[in-house]
Amino acid sequence: MKFKLGLIINPVAGLGGSVALKGSDNVASEALALGATPKANDRALQALELLVDYREKIIVLTAPGLMGQDLCETLGLHYQLVEFLQDQQLDKNLLSSNAQHTINAAKAIKEQGADCLVFAGGDGTARNIFTAIGDDFPVLGVPAGVKIHSGVYAITPKAAGKVLQLLISNQLVSLMQRDVMDIDESLFRQGVVKAKRYGEMMVPAELTYMQAVKMGGIESDELVHRDIAADVISDIEDELLIVGSGSTTAYIMQELGLDNTLLGVDVVHDQALVASDVSEQVLLQLISQFDSCKLVVTLIGGQGHVFGRGNQQLSPKVIRAIGLDNIIIIATKAKLNALNQRPLLVDTGDQALDLALSGLVKITTGYRDYVMVRIANPDLM
Length: 381
Known about the structure:
Elements: E1 3-9, H1 28-33, H2 40-48, E2 58-62, H3 69-75, E3 79-81, H4 99-111, E4 116-121, H5 123-133, E5 139-143, H6 157-168, E6 175-183, H7 185-188, E7 195-204, H8 222-234, E8 240-243, H9 247-256, E9 266-269, E10 272-275, H10 280-288, E11 293-298, E12 305-307, H11 316-322, E13 327-330, H12 333-337, E14 345-346, H13 351-357, E15 359-366, E16 369-375
Parallel strand pairs: 1-2, 1-4, 2-3, 4-5, 8-11, 11-13, 12-14, 13-15
Antiparallel strand pairs: 6-7, 8-9, 9-10, 15-16
Helix pairs in contact: 2-6, 4-5, 8-9, 10-11
């Protein structure tokens, strides 16, 4: 008997990230007008291409067009379409995709007897899936959105594919309940994080491949943050300084006496603010105007992601333009210890770049205080 794999792709997931909209809810047309490129199908492809060798063992239950059918045809996977009303079809410009498409597709996939539902999207997509199927049906998220706070997602698309390989090959895989989280994007765009737990869904208990629920809050040890900021500032001369999002990097802007975009990317030169809350395109323009630049980033507490979660403005093009040797990673030792010896993670969407970023890296943890921590090799995840 073939494994019945449900598949749903949210085609507009992640559209707002690279153009600094901090989400994709209700802003698909604006994001496309600003030059955003759809990425969700590419992310889903990275996961499902690992199943090509298993194609005779699976049948994919999926939705029409960009929500799954197109990817199945690209990979040569056997599939069946779930029933959709005619006015629910997706047009090719993505703008007709909405939450109800996801909800209807998930309900139909569950009703038609899928063994597991894999979906590509962000926290909004996870909420929609939860609304449709509840907490008693196995799911697996492929990270493709701007916000990935929920614990139902694999750490990378490739990791999701490896979990699916275990399921399809009848490996003994336990299940666990993980939180479905989301934040208010309207407040998020104003620099306010207001997260809410919506429930739990059942996911494979493969902790090597599944991400933790994001930890929030500002580190209480202010002196440590100021020491880290002082170290970074002391080493910047005439370079352009790009400051990534997060409460730890915010101390750099505070020490410089500059306004900070807590959940965005700011640019500084000669201790003056050049641009705030910038998009990928603006970053590339600014980088081209300077002989050298530095990028300072931190990691997401509890998860360990350095790139690919909430900072898609720092795209593969931007990272390559800056240069890997010009990246400064900062974190308190408390935040690193909270990872319980798990490696740091990168998920830029460019597998070659993720591989180039992997290995031991220097983390600034205080003034002239550093530790070496490993960024996971994506090929081994």
